[in-house]
Amino acid sequence: TSTSTGDIDALTTSTVGNTWAHATCLNNTGPCATTPYASDFATTWGTNYFAASNVSEPITVPTNAEVTGIRYAARFRSNVTTNTVQLGLLDYSGQFVGQTIAGGWSAVGTTNALTTFTYTDGIFQVNPQDFIDTSANLGNLRLRTSTSTAVGTATRDWDFALMSIRWIEPPAASGTLTTDIVDSGGTTVATPSVTLSAVTFNFDNVQTSTGTLGIAAQKVRVNNGTATPTWSLTVASTTGNAALWTSGANTYDYNSTSANGQCAVDPSGSTITPQSGCVTTGLSKGSATAFNQGVTDSVTLISAGSSAQTSCYWDVTGVTLSQTVPVLQVSGTYTLSLTLTAA
Description:
Blueprint: E1 20-23, E2 52-58, E3 66-77, E4 83-90, E5 96-97, E6 102-103, E7 105-112, E8 118-124, E9 138-148, E10 155-168, E11 177-182, E12 207-213, E13 219-224, E14 231-237, E15 245-247, E16 250-252, E17 263-266, E18 271-274, E19 283-285, E20 289-290, E21 298-304, E22 312-317, E23 319-325, E24 338-342
Antiparallel strand pairs: 1-10, 2-9, 3-8, 3-10, 4-7, 4-9, 5-6, 11-13, 12-23, 13-22, 14-21, 14-24, 15-16, 17-20, 17-23, 18-22, 19-21
């Protein structure tokens, strides 16, 4: 029992008030009535005496927080110079195959092989998130024999134990849902554009020009800083459905029939890359869709459902654009302005 370990007594004396006192043992006998982890004992199994004990501490990681360190503190003594004791933290992600039981532990803090007490504390920072059982909201701190030459029993004292976490939280939500075109470093591209493949003047056949919306140097970014997970990313003509491809005085349609000029958008093969620490859960890609004046004036690229994350951004690349060019269309460099909207 660990009753009465809630006080810390004088730090430098050999006497103490309330402690968790437990004796060392040999093999699986006496007070060691249960089979230990392999790392609970030290030196020679069956020859040297050892002891190990551990306490579970209730720790709940805040929602959306990232654990950056495990804070520990304890006061204890081995009470004999032939038996060295040290703290350890339970790693819930790993396994150490031991005598008969698997487990994972990392040693921390100062050792003690004295009749006086040692106080030790610190912050453990090696994969600290692995040392909290988030399903049970627990951490575990152990005191074990790290080295032993003892050939007889001794009673050790554990006076105080503390375990907690250090963590960071994402910045407060900005409260806005935005979309942008950014370069590979995340900086806004001042004048983004998509270049469609060139086609030659043709007397007889409709031709198709293609391009890609969203490349490494011009990624489509959606940033949801709101508390609402649902949103849609769409593309449409900037000036409305009466817009035209224009080269000087020459024009042709983007939202008519294939023969007169029609632009199609296919996001189905696109790539969605989430911000580090975020996921694509809840996001779905749109299907190949052609603009059709008055019927389909905008095309959905990405939709976010109720299971999507908030306070995250996602980069979209690889959306295919295709545009039919009418027969006998006058040669030129044609442009059409499109607008991306996240709502």
